[in-house]
């Protein structure tokens, strides 16, 4: 089965502003996970199911496609005239290899990529449905490719509904020969315990600032003047960093930090301007980002009071002094942490019932003012 050619539509497994993971040939900061897979491959202990876990945006999908490219381009080792070839030491495959070209063109018959599909009205579904998984039955029924290997990538496996998860579980219980199923999972706890138990886990961690810079450079993104601010807000996630860059997140957080620096008096005109910007037509993505950044600010306030030291590096100019002043001791840290939980719950509820975005933002800011004054 060829991977469906849906390049004219947004893909659920591609971050906005970034190349698709299949086109990202180099993976930064995840050498331990790659080595774990290679050791299993070279020792002939290649499990049929693998679960790639870790924070969103750290390279799980890129690793899945690297593994797929490697498996489909690496034939089984056979003794030749001079014995068996040395075991591979890397997942790297030449970009000019035929498999690389077929994957790039979504024309590799040995691979099936499962993501959230589109319904009859052309709208992307919110879940991976059972029909998406059942397509694999035809894929498994086709003739084996060179080497007899097949690879399935499910991204993200957390997005399967119950029927889809049960259908995939049956395939994991009775996997077709020479098939490797790769599950990209941001939240493994959302998967069925029986699915988790039938997979070997590869855990990917947050990227270091240096690895983050390298990964961003690979995407072609224009790096900011203060990359340490981006590193602080993105928390080791390239996906989060791209979202911040695309939506002007560094400027939004810098403005939020300056508004917080006026507490407990509060510069109401600046707060109102920030709230109105989030309520503009077509600004849904920026509104969602602002809510996330407000949660980030509250978390950094709580951390400062709990540890006695503001997080390093700063996420905006002058942030460290502001955090230290507003959260000078553990008691204040608890107050900020309680507000974080309350504000998050209220904001998500407000989004669910379509409350005015500006009102939600101002409500949170006023609660911040009250906490700062107490």
Top keywords for this entry?
374 residues; alpha/beta; Rossmann fold; 2 domains; 15 helices; 49% helix
Question: CATH superfamily assignment of the largest domain?
Answer: P-loop containing nucleotide triphosphate hydrolases
Q: Please state the average pLDDT score.
A: 90
The CATH class of the largest domain, by name, is Alpha Beta
Could you give the count of β-strands?
5
Low-confidence stretches: 1-7
Short description:
With 374 residues, this protein is of the alpha/beta class. It contains 15 helices and five strands. A five-stranded parallel sheet has the order 2-3-4-1-5, with helices on both faces.
Please explain how this structure is put together.
This protein has two domains: 21-203, Rossmann fold (3-Layer(aba) Sandwich), CATH 3.40.50.300; 247-373. It starts with 30 loop residues before the first helix and ends with a helix. By secondary structure, it is an alpha/beta fold. It has 15 helices and five strands. The protein has a five-stranded parallel beta sheet, with helices on both faces.
